[in-house]
Amino acid sequence: MYSKEVMNHFLKPKHAGEIKGADGVGVVGNPICGDKMTVYIKVSGNKLIKIKFKTFGCAAAIATSDMICDLAIGKTLEDAKRITRDEVADALGKLPLIKMHCSNLAADALKKAIEDYESKK
Amino acid sequence: MKVYFDNAATTRVSSEVLAAMRPFYTQKYGNPSSLHSFGREARTAVASSRESIAKSLRCDSEEIVFTSCGTEADNLALRALPKGMRLITSSIEHPAVFNSCKRLEEAGVGVDYLPVNREGIIDLAVFEKSLSKGVGLASIMHANNEIGSIQPINEIAELCSGRGVIFHSDAVQSLGKLEINLSKWPVDLLSLSAHKVHGPKGVGALFMRKGTKVKPLLCGGGHERGLRSGTENVPGIVGFAKAVELATNNRVKNESCIGKIRDKLVRGVLNSCGGAWLNGPKKNRLYNNAHFGFKGIEGESLVLRLDAEGIAASTGSACSSTSLKPSRVLLAIGLTPVQAHGSLRMTLSKFNTEKEVDYTIRKVNGAVSSLREITCVE
Question: In whole angstroms, what is the distance from residue B378 CA to residue B375 CA?
């Protein structure tokens, strides 16, 4: 049911972990629904220089978390905020329809992390 | 290493079963309704298969109706509910019964879904109380497909029979594993399936005690005494009978061999992974069923991590492919939705070995540890 790309990011996520002293943290989802993710960012000169995630959820939730890090790293905050859920899914070679709504939360988590950083500035 | 621990989903067909079926595809392929020798051959095979299954269940061969699967048998069974009467069922039934009940409710039938205790077993006193006036049929499964809990169906059947309530039980998971004695138990309807006992997919049966009336689901040529029209799945039926015969003859041996390695699996997983527990009962449980809960982990990701190591297991929880909701059964035994999401079902068969169990214990521990490293839920 999952693409090869989803399975790669799920089985060997490159960006899993936590950033101690992160500049911004975004939390979305609810474990009651089966998915919750936390995104940590480090910002320098208006650019995302480091992104990490911690996710409770299915393979799609973990893969989208890892993919958003791939897509956003090095981008300006403005560009990173514009990454959509659909772009994350497309980069993974599509997600099963049933997962598009519940498990594709990574773009929202990143946006929240950036907003968290901006609110603290 | 490839390990198949999903035998509650389906099983490998035994070589003896396949051997028994093969001639009915290639040589004895007649239609049992035909008058010629090919037809007679097929008819005889269906009749002796029916007798063989009836013998295992201690019922009359005329009381066995072959169907296309367990789901069909369940659907057919519930059609025995007399018009205008209520139906009693449990909150942990297989979707074949549960969703049929939901459909009946839409059509205006009153349905009560009885609770179960933390072990997934129905309270007989509660059950007895529910059998008020106006109840026409009760449907309670013999053994649960997720957590393996076994209901006291003999006692439940006695309570029903004393009040003139028709009693149906879905015995798809218990067939071949538990003793079923229809000469003693006053069960009226019992659903069965071949592919859970090393038989082929696409064939099931409904035991219907003499005098029980159901409205057929299919209209057609009047096969199966008018109860299930459609040309009989002759190879499937022959394979079904062989599978039941093998399971019945080896029941005691299978129970001790499979039970031993299942116990080792349970001990190994619980001892090696912190924050792990067993869902379902300790006693009154199918001997091949293990069902774990893990703190901070979502079941689908665990199943897919294990799949990457060659281990086939399943999750009764969220994201189980078509539904994102946590398992209704796990919520019914009192798990929180978060706990229910972190579940793993492993169901063994006679083809599994102790080596596979050792390998699996190591891999479960590895997968759980690595998922815990990246989770954000304590």
Answer: 8
CB A83 within 8 A of CB A72: yes
Active site residue B160: no
Spatial distance between the Cα atoms of B305 and B366, rounded to a whole number of angstroms = 9
Interface ipTM: 0.93
Q: Which domain holds residue B315?
A: 251-374
Domain range for A85: 4-120
Q: Do B376 and A10 touch (CB under 8 A)?
A: no
Contacts of A62 in chain B (CB under 8 A): 301, 374
Cα atoms found within 13 Å of the Cα of residue B15, Cβ hemisphere only = 1
Instruction: Give pLDDT tens digits for B66-122.
Output: 999 999 999 999 999 999 999 999 999 999 999 999 999 999 999 999 999 999 999
Q: Are residues B214 and B280 in the same domain?
A: no
Q: Check if the beta carbon of residue A110 is closer than 8 Å to that of residue A87.
A: no
Where residue B212 sits, what CATH number does that domain have?
3.40.640.10
Whole-structure pTM value: 0.95
How many angstroms separate the CA atoms of B342 and B21, rounded? 40
Residue-wise pLDDT tens digits, B329-351: 999 999 999 999 999 999 999 99
**Inside any domain, residue B5:** no
CA dihedral B234, B145, B140, B152 (to 10 degrees): 110
B189 and B270 co-located in one domain: no
- Same-domain pairing of B240 and B282: no
Does B53 share its domain with B98? Answer: yes
- A65-113 tens-digit pLDDT: 999 999 999 999 999 999 999 999 999 998 988 888 777 889 999 999 9
Report d(CA B58, CA B53) in Å as an integer.
Answer: 8
**Residue B268: inside a domain:** yes
Please indicate whether, in this complex, the C-beta atoms of B326 and A34 are within 8 angstroms of each other.
Answer: yes
Alpha-carbon span B207 to B262, nearest angstrom: 30
CATH of the domain at A19: 3.90.1010.10
* B150-205 pLDDT per residue, tens: 999 999 999 999 999 999 999 999 999 999 999 999 999 999 999 999 999 999 99
The answer as to whether B4 is a domain residue is no
Closest chain A residue by Cα to residue B336: A32
* Domains contained in chain A, number: 1
**Residue A97 C-alpha, separation from nearest chain B C-alpha, in angstroms:** 10
Option in A10, A27, A54 nearest B301 (CB): A10
Structural domain contains residue B146: yes
Q: Are residues B285 and B184 in the same domain?
A: no
DSSP code at position B62: G
